[in-house]
Specification:
Blueprint lengths: L2 H21 L3 H13 L2 H17 L6 H59 L16 H11 L3
Helix pairs in contact: 1-4, 1-5, 3-4
């Protein structure tokens, strides 16, 4: 299998695993993800600015220090959430890259095992262990499914 085909297959398998994982989320998990995504976005900032202006209009400019501190805390929290969301997305990309590199390395080792076995046969050297399992590529979706069965969390 060509390396590009292998990478494509692995990426498709990982996307499918993520899709299945997303489908298994409970209503509470979906709600928490939605709330976190919203409050970690610029739309949350716009909403809070609007609320601040509304409060200021209601109080006719009599904004007290407690309200200013509360709004400041809201803004700081929102910016932290935005930053965390970006960091999490970057970490996911890095994890995907690490996994792809590991899968490619595993594929190359698998190919090397087959090559060494072929050379050994040609030279008449006996290989002391069963290499049939070692000559098969690991299918990440099967590994992830087995992990899910053993630890469904």
């Amino acid at each position: 299998m060509a390396t590009i085909d292998l990478v494509e297959r692995n990426i498709r398998a990982l996307i499918e695993v993520r899709r299945k994982y997303d489908e298994k989320r409970t209503l509470q998990q979906r709600a928490a993800d939605f709330i976190t995504a919203f409050f970690g976005s610029m739309w949350s900032i716009y909403l809070h600015v609007g609320l601040l202006l509304l409060c200021a209009a209601v109080k006719l400019g009599l904004v007290d220090l407690a309200m200013i501190a509360s709004v400041e805390a809201i803004f700081l929290t929102t910016f932290v959430l935005i930053s965390q969301n970006r960091a999490a997305a970057l970490a996911d990309r890095r994890n995907d890259l690490d996994l792809q590199i590991s899968l490619l390395a595993e594929h190359e080792v698998t190919q090397l095992i087959a090559m060494v076995e072929s050379i050994s046969e040609r030279l008449g050297v006996e290989v002391p262990l069963d290499t049939e399992d070692l000559k098969r590529d690991v299918r990440p979706e099967m590994v992830l499914e087995q992990m899910e069965e053993m630890d469904p969390r």
